[in-house]
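Schema walk-through. Below, the input block comes first and the output block second. Nothing else is stored per chain. Lengths vary across the set, and this one has 196 residues.
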Amino acid sequence: MPGLLRNAFMLLMLWSLAGVALAHEGGGHVGGFSSGFMHPLLGWDHVLAMVAVGLWGAFLGGSALWMLPIVFPFVMAIGGVLGIAGVDLPAVETGIALSAVILGSMVLAAARPPLWLAAVIVGVFAIFHGHAHGTELPEAVSPLAYSLGFVLATGLLHLCGIGFGFLVRWPAGRAIVRLGGGLIALGGAAFLFGFA
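--- output ---
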């Protein structure tokens, strides 16, 4: 299984390098499943945060391993509905960038809050990600196919984080995972302050 996760991670990373676009920029390309699938993969701020969710879940271990990657898409769907309904959510881009900063910092600091609190933190940021996706859904040729695509891509990014997070089983791997969290936080800060 770790080999499969490693291969999936490498495939996603190579695939995401194929083009450059912000995941939440409106464009005429919004359509069905493939557009929805590529939407989170082409926005590095989304990629960082979604990988961080899986990474933190693996770092925390136990039921956090599956709970955090499940909470995120469920709450993201709520944010998506808000976006579809045209409900204004202030500072969406800031919330998305902060999600990478905070979630990456949690891993870097080896933070171990109670599971309910970790789920709340992940859920709050999922609303911003969902809203960004949801604002594009009304233009989609097939909203259901588009939604399925971005939920699947989100899940795969969580799995990439989980696969990388399994390195915590070894002492050197724990340091590498924490470093990965730090890099995610730095990437989020770059988006937050307009360097990326």
